[in-house]
Amino acid sequence: MAEGRIIKALSGFYYVKSGEDIYQCRGRGVFRNKKITPLVGDFVRFDINEPNEGYIMEIMERENELIRPPIANIDQAIIVNSATKPDFSSVLLDRFLVLIEAKDIKPVIFITKMDTIEDLNNEDIESYKKNYEQIGYQVELLSAKDPDSMPVLDNYFKDNVTVFAGQSGVGKSSLLNALKPSLLLKTGEISESLGRGKHTTRHVELMQVGGGLVADTPGFSALDFSEIDPEQLSDCFPEMRSISEFCKFRGCKHYKEPKCAVKQAVSDGEITAYRYEHYVSFLEEIQSRKPRY
Q: Region 200-207: what's the mean pLDDT?
């Protein structure tokens, strides 16, 4: 029995890379019976029954997985925000960060289209960059007019499995095309009336980029917190995670509780006010959802 990794799923077939070869495989019926779906990124054991064809027999334990896009064993998620068109949104960025932190995936922040903004707004973006770096995130500011910045980004991809996240129109496909022109991914035109790009990606595939594997996917199509409980939320904010142990009450939600170390840190300027405001907004959203049965 051979071992490999699924690098593409399309029309019921799973393309498994094993060594330098790729095998077109089907999943065993037992997976369907157990309602298990092999995912791109899965490490698998498979039987070869024809040259370059086979059947997946076993799926190894996953480190992590995403539902949308359906992919497993991800090392990092690069969250792509644009400075303009669509305008930079810290609340949307924090939404992505929470979803990625909840899955134990390392987030990295890229802010594109820096060449399209006015000087005043440039200071705002630089300020956000400083804030997120103080929390511990890596942040890159990218300009289409500075192609020399692209080779630097290769360091992020080497030996990693990377998924891109970000709203449509921020330049995810354009960024990948700049990193690896041979990909020639379709880039979605921005729909001015909607303020968002059209989805152009149809299936999930891991592609070789910069010495690693990158998933070309439509990114997160759902930005709700349906899988996150109120008690988990503050763990998705690293600056709160490190301070919450000093709260008076165990299980403090840093909301209306007295003697809360997190709220004190906000007052002292150790946690930025907008991050805490987003936290409260997300917490209220989670608490207001209907219970699941």
A: 70
Indicate the pLDDT class of residue 60, thresholds 50, 70 and 90.
very high
Per-residue confidence (pLDDT) for residue 186, from 0 to 100 = 52
Binding site members for GTP: 112-115, 166-174
* CATH code given to domain 66-216: 3.40.50.300
Give the tokens for residue 205: 């595939």
Which residues sit in the known binding site for Zn(2+)? 247, 252, 254, 260
Q: How many CA atoms lie within 13 A of 91 on its CB side?
A: 7
Q: 59-73, 87-101, 176-190, 231-245 — which is least confidently predicted?
A: 176-190
* HEC sequence for 196-209: EECCCCCCCEEEEE
Pick the CATH number of 2-61 from 2.40.50.140, 2.30.22.10, 3.40.1390.10, 3.75.10.20: 2.40.50.140
Q: List residues forming the annotated binding site.
A: 112-115, 166-174, 247, 252, 254, 260
